[in-house]
Amino acid sequence: MSRRRAPEPFAAILRDAVAQAAPDTLLARVQALWPELAGPAIAAESAPSSEREGMVTVDCSGAVWAQELALLEPELVGRLNARLEGLQVRSLRFRVKAP
After folding, report:
1. 92: helix, coil or strand?
2. Which of these, 43, 49, 94, 95, could form a disulfide with 35 (CB 3.0-4.6 Å)?
């Protein structure tokens, strides 16, 4: 008699399904990596929102965050490009998200 396998947690199934359904674009990859590479404090105040020809636009919660992240742009681009496979971020543009 064979043993029954325990059911897989729904969260794991959902995580796998979402990962497989995500488009394989530069923006999707940057959005997936942003919380890890930017860090929790920055990720809580900003999010990549669009991309065009390698320039990724990041929405920020305020002007101070947009200015601070503009100063960190070379470091953030370097971190992203080190983790992206086959695609490259040319630059980051930071803007204040409208309320």
Report:
1. strand
2. 43
